[in-house]
Amino acid sequence: MGGSVSGGEFDRDTKYITTRITVDGRDGYPVEPGRYRLIVARACPWANRTIIVRRLLGLEDALSIGFCGPTHDVRSWTFDLDPGGVDPVLKIPRLQDAYFARIPNYPKGITVPAIVDVPTGQVVTNDFAQMTLDLSTEWSAFHREGAPQLYPEPLRAEIDDVIGRIYTDVNNGVYRCGFASSQDAYEEAYDRLFTALDWLSARLENQRYLVGETITEADIRLFTTLVRFDAVYHGHFKCNRAKLTEMPALWAYARDLFQTPGFGDTVDFVQTKQHYYIVHTNINPTQIVPKGPELANWLTPHGREALGGRPFGDGTAPGPTRETERVPAGHGAG
C-alpha cells in the first residue's frame, strides 16, 4: 500500500477509490456473480485479508481471483506468475492498466487488493477496509451454505472499535516503525505498537477470539499482521522488543487461527519475505532475503480450545482450497 514520510513519520495514503459494489448498485456496480475479479498478492497483508474472507465465505464461484507476483517496480504490481506475464482474465500485464482504464494517469499508488470490473477492465475499488465488510454483507446471497458471520450485526460496534485500534497501532503501526525516518518517530510508533500488543495479549488471555465467541473480521485483520511478524516485521521493520513466539497469548492465538481452515492455507511465507526484503531497497539495499525463521512450529498444539468458543459459530469450516488457488508447495508451514 502507498504512503509517504513527513517529518520523519510514515503517513499512509488513505485516499482510496471508495466506489462500492452493493446489492442495490447505488454506485453503478451491482453485486453480480462472475462480473468482477479480485486482484491480490499473497505477500500483502491487506490483500491476505480478502483472500481469507473470500475463502471462508465460499465466494470462489461468484468472485474470481488473480494473483500478482511478490515483487513489483515503482510503477505497478505485475502478473509475472501467469503464463506470459499476463492475467488470463483481464489480459493485462500490469495492475496499473486496470487503474488507468478507470482513471487515466491515476496519480496514487497502484495497490492490492483491488476489484476489477471484467467487462470494462476498470478498477472498481481498492478500499481494502470496506472491501471485506462488503463481501460479508453485500455478497451474502452468494455465500456458501454454512458460511460464518464475520461481521455480525449485534457485535459491529465493538468490532469497529477493536479494528480501529488494531489498524492504527498494529496493522499500520509496524509500517510506521519500518518506514520512520527519524529516531523520535520510530520510537513513538514502536511504543504504540507494543502497548497495543500488550492490550491485545491481555484481552486474549481468557477469551479465544477478539470479539464474541466466534471468528470475526477483527481476528482476520489482526492475524495477517501477526503471521508476518517474526518473518518480516521483527527484523526488517525493527519491531524487536519481542518476537511473536515470545508473546505467549498472541503466539497461541495466532497458531490457533493459522491451523483453522481458511487462514494458514492462504499464507505464502516465501512470497511474503521476497516482497518486503527485495522491494524495500531503502531499508534493505542488499535485497538479501533471510532463510529463517523456522516455520514448523506454526503447526504445534496451541491449547486454545480450552477457552471455548466456536470458530465458525453456527456455520462450518470451508472445504479444501481449490487446486488452482493453493499456496505453492514449500511456501507454507507444512
UniProtKB/TrEMBL annotation:
Give the positions the UniProt entry annotates as the active site.
44 (nucleophile), 175 (proton donor/acceptor)
Among PROSITE patterns, the record links this protein to: GST_CTER
Alphabetized Gene3D superfamilies for the sequence = 1.20.1050.10, Glutaredoxin
Chain positions covered by the region annotation Disordered: 304-334
Gene Ontology CC entries for this record: cytoplasm
Known EC number: 1.8.-.-
What InterPro entries does the annotation carry? Answer: Glutathione-S-Trfase_C-like, Glutathione-S-Trfase_C_sf, Glutathione_S-Trfase, Glutathione_S-Trfase_N, GST_Omega-like_C, GST_Omega/GSH, Thioredoxin-like_sf
According to its UniProt record, what is one Pfam family this protein matches? Answer: GST_C_2
State the superkingdom: Bacteria
Binding sites annotated in the UniProt record for glutathione = 77
* Keyword Oxidoreductase (UniProt): yes
Q: Where is this site: Lowers pKa of active site Cys?
A: 233, 276
What UniProt keywords are attached to this protein's entry?
Answer: Oxidoreductase
Give one GO term, molecular function aspect: glutathione transferase activity
* Protein name as it appears in the record: Glutathionyl-hydroquinone reductase YqjG
Any idea where the GST C-terminal domain is?
152-279
